[in-house]
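Appendix B. Raw example, untouched.
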Amino acid sequence: MAKLVNTPQVKLGLVGVSRDCFPIELTRRRTSALAAAMKKAGLRGAHTCSVIIESEAGALAALDELAERGCNAAVIYLGNFGPEGPTAMFAQRFAGPVMVCAAAEENKAVLASERGDALCGMLNCSYSLGLRNVPAYIPQMPVGLPDELAAQIAGFEAIARVVIGVQNLKILSFGPRPQDFLACNAPIQPLADLGVEVMENSELDLYQLYQKAGQHKQRIARVAGDMKKELGSGCAYPDLLPKMAQLEVALLDFMEANLGASRFAVFADKCWPAFESAFGFVPCYVNSRLAGRGIPVACEVDLYGALSEYMAQLATLLPATLLDINNSVPADVLPKRADLKGAAAADLFMGFHCGNTCSECMKTCELKYQLIMNRLMEDGREADITRGTLEGQLRPGPMTLFRLQSTADCWLRSYVAEGEMLDIDPCSFGGIGIIAVPHFARFYRHVLIGQRFPHHAAVGFARAGRVLFEAVRLLGVTDVAAPLPAGTLYEGENPFEA
């Protein structure tokens, strides 16, 4: 597996809180027990704050300590009832995502005099956070024993990674969002609201960068050699590799030079129709290689597609891809008694794109040409400028479908769905796979169509629905859809058809 660059490292800080009418030692002892459980759960890099917050001064001291230790995510632990104001103040001023949880009573022996009453404290803490309009992650079961909470905190680490990545991201785009894909023309104001920077550039800028990169002959040769090694017997066009390597060098150099105040970056590039005539190839394989390193490149200048793909990557810690929710699956494609992983035949669809999925996420792959573009640009003759796609069957296994999108009136909405990439030959071209999502048919009609989502969906190659749902909510997005089972109606769904 390739090492993912461009990915935040989460440094957790654990801070206990104690109301002054409760013994501080109760929180101190329980916080130590939770820290030990976190270590046992694999969270070895977490820092346990030496300060137990009882007052505003304690909140400020805890903030200073966690900042000095480089903590970028915090877990607030109510070892007892906890002080509402100082706890909320800490959460409000902490520069990163925050989780809140609380201690369950261990046994009947503590009930006589050392009862913590944290179940009650969580209610008041939530109210106080609301007064300050502070977003915080509160798990499904926020009150528990150390081992139970450690498992919840491990889940929060992934949620925090997504949030930190988004809030420190820059989207680098090349070319105008294309007329033939109006769905990619979404307002960018909500991106700024999320903390995402956008740097838009022209296709001519990219061409000049490409020409300038041509001077790095040795680097280009090394990258071309790496491409040849990666493709192996699937390297149908060895003459094309130096050109594609030159584009990879140009994009990586541009990213490094233009991160600015951001820490991470993704691309959203216009990849046709002018690109092929100017550069002499399609950029898909280069895009696939960057995605494999943790730098997604969205097709057709899809800014929200690039963001969604990056979020899927952060949630799974695996390369992700961007696919069209593309076509239905004919009955004769499916083997008899095929395992549809809990989905009905009507819930199947093919996820497709020209060839932007990295080789690690494909069952089979080889360098090919884009058939549709070949018909458009080369009249179906022997391919030349339309070469450069990475095509084959997508890797079977669990997957997550995800999109975060702005509406025309700048309202952010999202969807998350889990399913399976089936190990069935799609019998078609491009980077393509058959996807089974239980209850997808109604979801497609009433969420994807009904709420006007575009055709592009980010695909993560693992189940990450819980993480993405919570991360999106922590970012302030309240409209998050998921597939509903039979008998549960979507808003506006006709009950006489359901």
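End of appendix B.
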